[in-house]
């Protein structure tokens, strides 16, 4: 087969390699991932992250295991373990649910492998549609604020929110990006800034708490964010700090957009209150650690709350840019609104 490659994944039909994002931007290390415990460990320490990317990675890993002779009942147990590894990321669950019925198909593993490859292809195509739709909204030289990382490191394609920005750059619109560093693991300062450099996009890294002051000074014209799960009513979960940006944007009358594939929408989740929020290791808040050193600034005995995500109500969203179209607040409500094809407002 033709190898599949993206900013964070490489798959050749027999092996899966993952770019270790915990080492970026200073080292680019591709790690072989050939079993479920390895992928779970990579996901939990955010060596691979982004709801679309981990959904695609899980599908491709199960395809690798199937091709290597994993029995269907064993693969099913593996898949269910993967499904529970990141409770907020709905794409992961959706990918695995597509593969589970194929584990008992007469043509196993061929049909399962084909479906996994389709999941990868569909994410690439959905990123392209979101980028095209979103870039149409941007004017020349707009100052855009974003949080966390939503580019090719978070998807199999060119990204969600960052994909819109990158598309605008290729169209000659010269966007400027305020990159919120994104505490506590700095996915903005480390990853989005790195992707801006790769794409030649002018940008500045800011501490998360600087965003409202920039809005007050008229230095932000638009906010673009991604999502890990969108409820049926339009509420959505994203990296912690997103809700604060939405509140500040509403106060300063700045458009606030959510960019995500339809696979991020959870039709069984009525609203944001029903979205599970992952709680992460307290040591991420007490200091920093990793391949480049360790520094602790907080008392070890102090208790820590470290939610990885927060919930932003639909009422604070200007529009949802999905791969099926652009949706305004008045579109939200009827069942399956996200499946109706929409154009520009």
From TrEMBL:
Q: Where is this site: Transition state stabilizer?
A: 148
Pathway(s) served: Amino-acid biosynthesis; L-methionine biosynthesis via salvage pathway; L-methionine from S-methyl-5-thio-alpha-D-ribose 1-phosphate: step 1/6
**Entry EC number(s):** 5.3.1.23
Per its UniProt record, what Gene3D superfamilies does this chain match?
translation initiation factor eif-2b, domain 1 (1.20.120.420), Translation initiation factor eif-2b, domain 2 (3.40.50.10470)
Sites binding substrate sit at: 49-51, 86, 187, 238-239
Q: What class of enzyme is it?
A: isomerase
Q: What are the catalytic residues?
A: 228
Q: Which key words are in the record?
A: Amino-acid biosynthesis, Isomerase, Methionine biosynthesis
Give the catalytic activity: 5-(methylsulfanyl)-alpha-D-ribose 1-phosphate = 5-(methylsulfanyl)-D-ribulose 1-phosphate
Q: Which domain of life is it from?
A: Bacteria
Keyword NADP set for record: no
Q: Which GO terms describe its molecular function?
A: isomerase activity
Q: Name one Pfam family in it.
A: IF-2B
Q: Which family does it belong to?
A: Belongs to the EIF-2B alpha/beta/delta subunits family. MtnA subfamily.
What exactly does this protein do? Catalyzes the interconversion of methylthioribose-1-phosphate (MTR-1-P) into methylthioribulose-1-phosphate (MTRu-1-P).
The name under which this protein is listed is Methylthioribose-1-phosphate isomerase
Q: What is the organism field in this record?
A: Desulfofustis limnaeus
